[in-house]
Amino acid sequence: MERDDLTDVDNAILDELRGGRATKGALVDWTGYSRNSVYNRLEVLVAAGHVTCVHDGTRLFELRDDPRDE
After folding, report:
1. Residue 21 in contact with residue 32, Cβ under 8 Å?
2. Full-model pTM
3. CA 59, CA 5: separation in Å to the nearest integer?
4. Model confidence band, residue 11 (pLDDT cutoffs 50, 70, 90)
5. What's the whole-number mean pLDDT along residues 2-19?
6. Angle at which helices 35-47 and 8-18 pack, to 10 degrees?
7. What SUPFAM superfamilies would the database entry show (predicted)?
């Protein structure tokens, strides 16, 4: 995934995860985007290897590799 491919939702998620781990629900609350938007973009970021789920039970995510740094 290239920097130009990132959406506003992606950037908001990445900004929040730079501060540490977060659940899907927290990311929805903190970013102000709809649950569907956040969930869909998280799937894209995980598939691209930029974000990883560190605990399936709580759906806790962390930043693995910020594509904006490349």
Report:
1. no
2. 0.91
3. 24
4. very high
5. 94
6. 80
7. Winged helix' DNA-binding domain
The mean pLDDT of 22-50, rounded to a whole number, is: 97
* AA identity, residue 49: G
Locate all alpha helices (DSSP H) within 2-67, ordered by sequence.
8-18, 24-31, 35-47
Structure token digits, residue 39: 């969930």
The encoded tokens of residue 6 equal 């990132």
What domains does the chain contain, in order, with CATH numbers? 3-64 (1.10.10.10)
For 2, 4, 5, 6, the CA distances from 20, given in Å and listed in that order, are 22, 24, 23, 20
Q: Could you give the CA distance from residue 21 to residue 17 in angstroms, rounded to a whole number?
A: 6
